[in-house]
Amino acid sequence: MKMLLKIIGNEFRANIYNYRLPVAVIILIGLLAVSLLALTDDYNRKLQDYSILTQSEAPLLCILRPSPLWIFSVGLSDQLTIPYRVNDFRQIHGGQSQKTVNRLFSIFEPPDSLYIFKIIITLMAIFFTYDIIVGEKESNTLRVCLANSIPRSAFLVGKMLGNYLSLAMVCAIIFLIGLLVIGSFPTVDFTTEEIVRYLLFLAVSLVFLAVIAGMGACVSTIAGSSGQSLVILIGIWLIIMYCLPNISSSVADSISPLPQNTEVSRKLNSIWIGGVFDLLNLYDDRNFSQAERQESNRRILEQTKSVESEYFAAVNRQNEIVRIIGRLSPATAYVNAATALMRNGVADVNRYRMELRQLRNIMGQYDANANPGLKYRGLSLRESIKTVIVDIVELLLLAAGFMLLAVVLFNRADIN
């Protein structure tokens, strides 16, 4: 144990002396400062939009207040900030989302904390671990170290943990300071649950970081040179970050294609136009009853429900295929878990839309001037964890698996 702690300490000091850790600290502080300033400003503007919309004369059926957690993870928040109203046919009509006012966000990915962890910090993990074994071999110090009665497993685990903990501790401290700074702003008010969600988000991010660090240790153990190790790791990184997630969508679309949006829109427009003519005929009669109007609205709702149910069933089938294939990449599992914890994941959007559809189906029970409103509370923390427990377990197993694989590979490796 003492030997393991000594190796970890040596790695931590080495990362300071060779400027890896100081450079990482400077980059992370700069990136996080820019990210939090830009997204906090965006959050404040969305709050202003929310205030204006809730005070408008036209009654809103539902609009969600932006969550301060979205400062750290944008996710699918644009789909959760659409204001909904009731039209003359007692149907729910969505307006424009409270989209970001920063035009650069429509071109580049928003530089939120999720993006920083997924892209920047994982690349840092690769540069911290790509040469932990092959570098020692190239400098001819590996045989000397192992000749001093240091067990191979202790040497590898110490090197790997030393580099991982160096980066993980810096990330944890900087991101916790970021939470405290943002929480001090007058417009940002975190609840206890939101703080817990952020801490769980940070914990899941560090587990994902451990997966990449373990992968780096495995490749460094079997690579023939530091350059070869770095090239292999960058190639694997590109595959798990970009190739697999994008391929999963294409494969799912070929296995279970969605109906064309134009065809769905055509069917819905046909239903609504038919409803307009029905109402016009009733008005011409001048003796139509409230029951006749409600019956017309009921037919429109039933026909709309049938078209939408068919479409959403196809969407759910495709999403399930994407989820299954996407889990081949730990990056997909990480994004799923992180966005669920930050209240802007797929499950949050699905729940929101489901409750809107349920409300739409009973709108015919209310009179023409009624606006029942949607009392949406969102998923609880327990429900959010339940939706992504498979993704979290996958990350934990991958982190432990890569560490064990690295030990096995190093115990069998030729150190000459």
| Spatial sequence of strands, sheet with the most strands | 1-2
Low-confidence stretches: none
Number of domains: 1
**Which H/E pattern describes the elements?**
HHEEHHHHHHHHHHHH
Q: Level of helix content?
A: over 70%
How does the overall form come out from the CA principal axes?
A: elongated
Count of separate DSSP helical elements: 14
Q: Round the Cα radius of gyration to an integer and report it.
A: 27 Å
**What structural class do the secondary elements suggest?**
mainly alpha
Structure in a nutshell:
The chain has helices at 2-17, 20-54, 113-129, 134-138, 142-147, 152-183, 192-222, 226-255, 261-285, 290-326, 330-341, 346-361, 381-387, 389-412, and strands at 84-86, 92-94. With 416 residues, the protein is mainly α.
Key features of this structure:
2 strands; elongated; 70% helix; 416 residues; mainly alpha; two-stranded antiparallel sheet
Describe the structure.
It is built from 14 helices and 2 strands. By secondary structure, the chain is mostly helical. The chain has one domain. A two-stranded antiparallel sheet has the order 1-2. Strand 1 and strand 2 form a beta hairpin. Helix 8 runs antiparallel to helix 10. The longest helix is centred in the last third of the chain and has 37 residues. The radius of gyration is 27 Å and the shape is elongated. The two termini are 27 Å apart. The mean pLDDT is 81.
